C-alpha cells in the first residue's frame, strides 16, 4: 500500500480520502496525483486483500475500482462492499468496453452501493476531475441496508405504526408531455419513524412483506390515498396511482375491497390506477392474472411499474391486462449519457404502444429529457424535473404554481436530441 | 503476427503525455517516475510470461496483458496498447494458433520504441 498526504491535517477540516484499487501501477499513480491535486488524500492498493485492510482501517470516503484484476475481479469486490454496507462514493474505472462498465454499474446500484460514476480508460484528466468533484459519500444513515443491523420489524411494530399513523403518503405529479396538463398523482408511502425520521419504502416494504403485514399496509395506503383524493380531486379528471405488492395479488378479494373503498368515497375505480412492479407481476403469474383481471373488470387502471428492470417475457406481458406501462427511471435518467438507454426507452415505448398501453416515463429530471421522451412518442412523465413526491400541503402549492403551457413552451425551446427525429 | 497490423495506430499520443507533463509543477519528475514504473511493470510481465504459459495460467496472462493495455494507453502509447489488447484476446483463446512468441517479440520491440519516444518527450519538456 502506498500513501501520500497532500496537506497537513486541520482540526475539523474534512479531507476526502480516496482509496484506489487497480492492478496497473501507472494508472494508480495517475489517479492518486489527480486526486491529490483536487484536495484528496489518496492511498493505492493493487489487490483486494490490501484493499479490504485499508477499507477497514482507513475508512475512505471515496473509492475507485478496476474491474479486471488477478484473483478477484471488480464485480466480486463490489459484492463484498455491498455486504459490508459501504457508504463511500464508488467510481468504476476500467478499460473494459462501455457496455460492460454500465452493466457493472447497474449490478452495484442494484446491490445498494453508492456508485457515483464510471470512467473508461484511458481518460482525459478533466473527466476524472469532474467525477471526483461530483462524487459524494452517502451518509451512513442513508444506507439502504441499515435495517440489516438489527432494527426489529415485527407484526407488533407494524401494528403500532399503523395505530399511530406513522405511515404517511407523499404525492408526485404526472403530466401530459404534449399539453403540460396534470394527468394524475402517484401516492407514495413513507414511514415517519419516531427514531429514524422519514424512511423510504424500499427500506421497509421488504421487511413488512417478510413479517406478513403487507395487506394491512396496502389497505391503509388505499384508505388514506382515496380519502385525500376524494377531497383534492373534486371536479377534475385526474387519476390517483397507488402501489401494491406481489403478495397482495394472492387475495382474490382485493378487487372487491378496493371497489368498496372507492364507492365509500365516491371515487370511480376508473380514476384509480394500481401499480405493481414487473417483478411482482411475474412472481406468481397465474395468481396475479386472476386478481389483475378482476381489478380491470371492476374498472381500475393497471400499470406495470419500473418496466425494463425485471425479466418478464413478451408472452407473459401480453397475457396480463395492464393498461399502462411505466418506464424505469434508470433508463430514462441515463438517456443523456448513454445512447443505449435511449434506444431501450424507444423500444419500450414502441412495445407499449403495440400492446395498446399508455406510456409513463419515470425519472424525468430536466426539460431536455422530457423533450427527448416527447419526440420518442411518450405521452406522459413524472420525475423531479416536474415535481418531486410531496406531502399533501406542499403538493397543493405545487399544483397552484404549475403552468402546463409554460412547460410545453420550455420543451419547444429545448434543443432536440440529435438521436431522435429525422436522424434516427 | 502481421507486423503491419498495428502500423496505422500512432506510436505516441502526445496529448496524453502532455496531460502528465501538465502535472509536473505539482509533482516534479512525474513523467520520469511513470516511465520507470511502466518499464519495471513491463519487465515483470515479460519475465513472468514463459512460466505462466508453461503453467497454463492463461487467465493470469490475459489479465496481465489487459493491465499492460491500460498502462500503455494512460501514457499515450496507442500502438503498444492495441498490441497488448490483441495479446489479451489471444490469451483468452489460450494462444490456440501458436502466436505467443510472435506477439511477445512484437511487444518487446514496440516497448523499446515507446520508451525512446517517452524519454524524448521528457527531454523536450526539460
Describe the structure.
The complex is a heterodimer of chains A (424) and B (126). With 424 residues, chain A is α/β, with parallel strands linked by helices. Chain A has helices at residues 25-37, 48-58, 74-83, 98-110, 125-134, 155-163, 201-210, 214-232, 254-264, 278-283, 285-298, 314-319, 329-333, 339-354, 367-376, 392-401, 404-413; strands at residues 2-4, 17-21, 41-45, 62-65, 89-94, 115-120, 167-176, 182-193, 197-199, 239-243, 272-277, 301-307, 324-327, 358-361, 380-381. In chain A, the strands form two sheets. An eight-stranded mixed beta barrel of chain A has the order 7-8-10-11-12-13-14-15, surrounded by five helices. A six-stranded mixed beta sheet of chain A has the order 1-3-2-4-5-6, sandwiched between helices. In chain A, α15 crosses α17. Residues 6-12, 140-151 and 418-424 of chain A have low confidence and may be disordered. The radius of gyration of chain B is 15 Å and the shape is elongated. Chain B contains five helices and no strands. By secondary structure, chain B is mostly helical. In chain B, α2 (30-54) runs antiparallel to α3 (58-74) and α4 runs antiparallel to α5 (100-125). Chain B has helices at residues 14-21, 30-54, 58-74, 78-92, 100-125. The interface between A and B is medium-sized, with 19 and 27 residues.
Amino acid at each position: 500500500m502506498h500513501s501520500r498526504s497532500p496537506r497537513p491535517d486541520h482540526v475539523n477540516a474534512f479531507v476526502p480520502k480516496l482509496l484506489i484499487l487497480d492492478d496497473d501501477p501507472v494508472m494508480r499513480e495517475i489517479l492518486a496525483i489527480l486526486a491529490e491535486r483536487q484536495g484528496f488524500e489518496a492511498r493505492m492498493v493493487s489487490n483486494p486483500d490490501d484493499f479490504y485492510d485499508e477499507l477497514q482501517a482507513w475508512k475512505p470516503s471515496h473509492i475507485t475500482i478496476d474491474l479486471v484484476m488477478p484473483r478477484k475481479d471488480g464485480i466480486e469486490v463490489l459484492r463484498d462492499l455491498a455486504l459490508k454496507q459501504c457508504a463511500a462514493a464508488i467510481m468504476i474505472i476500467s478499460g473494459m468496453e462501455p457496455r460492460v462498465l454500465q452493466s457493472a454499474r447497474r449490478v452495484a446500484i442494484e446491490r445498494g452501493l453508492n456508485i457515483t460514476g464510471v470512467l473508461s480508460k484511458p481518460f482525459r484528466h478533466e473527466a476524472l476531475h469532474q467525477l471526483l468533484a461530483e462524487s459524494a459519500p452517502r451518509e451512513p444513515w442513508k444506507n439502504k441496508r441499515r435495517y440489516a443491523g438489527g432494527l426489529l420489524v415485527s407484526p407488533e411494530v407494524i401494528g403500532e405504526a399503523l395505530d399511530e399513523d406513522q405511515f404517511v403518503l407523499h404525492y408526485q405529479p404526472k403530466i401530459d408531455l404534449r399539453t403540460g396538463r396534470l394527468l394524475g398523482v402517484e401516492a407514495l408511502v413513507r414511514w415517519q419513524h419516531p427514531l429514524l425520521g422519514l424512511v423510504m419504502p424500499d427500506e421497509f416494504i421488504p421487511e413488512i412483506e417478510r413479517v406478513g403485514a403487507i395487506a394491512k399496509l396496502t389497505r391503509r395506503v388505499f384508505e388514506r390515498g382515496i380519502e385525500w383524493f376524494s377531497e383534492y380531486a373534486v371536479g377534475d379528471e385526474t387519476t390517483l396511482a397507488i402501489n401494491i405488492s406481489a403478495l397482495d395479488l394472492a387475495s382474490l378479494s382485493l378487487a372487491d375491497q378496493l371497489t368498496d373503498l372507492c364507492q365509500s368515497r365516491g371515487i370511480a375505480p376508473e380514476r384509480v390506477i394500481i401499480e405493481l412492479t414487473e417483478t411482482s407481476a411475474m412472481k406468481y403469474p397465474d395468481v396475479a392474472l386472476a386478481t389483475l383481471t378482476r381489478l380491470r373488470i371492476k374498472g381500475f387502471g393497471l400499470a406495470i411499474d419500473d418496466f425494463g428492470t425485471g425479466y418478464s417475457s413478451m408472452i407473459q406481458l401480453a397475457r396480463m391486462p395492464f393498461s399502462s406501462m411505466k418506464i424505469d427511471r434508470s433508463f430514462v435518467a441515463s438517456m443523456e449519457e448513454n445512447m443505449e438507454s435511449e434506444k431501450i426507452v424507444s423500444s419500450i415505448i414502441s412495445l407499449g404502444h403495440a400492446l395498446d398501453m399508455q406510456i409513463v416515463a419515470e425519472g424525468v429530471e430536466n426539460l431536455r429529457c422530457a423533450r427527448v421522451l416527447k419526440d420518442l412518442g411518450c405521452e406522459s412523465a413524472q420525475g423531479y424535473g416536474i415535481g418531486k413526491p410531496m406531502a399533501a400541503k406542499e403538493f397543493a402549492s405545487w399544483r397552484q404554481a404549475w403552468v402546463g403551457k409554460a412547460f410545453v413552451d420550455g420543451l419547444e425551446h429545448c434543443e432536440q436530441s440529435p438521436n431522435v427525429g429525422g436522424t434516427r | 503476427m502481421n507486423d503491419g497490423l498495428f502500423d496505422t495506430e500512432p506510436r505516441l499520443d502526445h496529448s496524453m503525455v502532455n496531460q502528465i507533463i501538465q502535472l509536473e509543477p505539482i509533482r516534479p519528475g512525474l513523467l520520469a517516475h511513470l516511465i520507470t514504473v511502466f518499464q519495471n511493470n513491463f519487465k515483470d510481465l515479460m519475465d513472468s510470461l514463459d512460466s505462466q504459459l508453461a503453467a497454463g495460467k492463461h487467465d493470469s496472462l490475459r489479465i496481465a496483458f489487459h493491465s499492460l493495455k491500460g498502462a500503455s494507453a494512460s501514457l499515450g502509447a496507442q500502438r503498444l496498447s492495441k498490441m497488448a489488447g490483441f495479446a489479451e484476446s489471444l490469451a483468452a483463446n489460450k494462444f490456440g494458433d501458436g502466436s505467443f512468441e510472435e506477439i511477445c517479440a512484437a511487444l518487446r520491440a514496440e516497448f523499446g520504441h515507446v520508451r525512446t519516444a517517452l524519454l524524448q518527450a521528457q527531454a523536450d519538456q526539460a
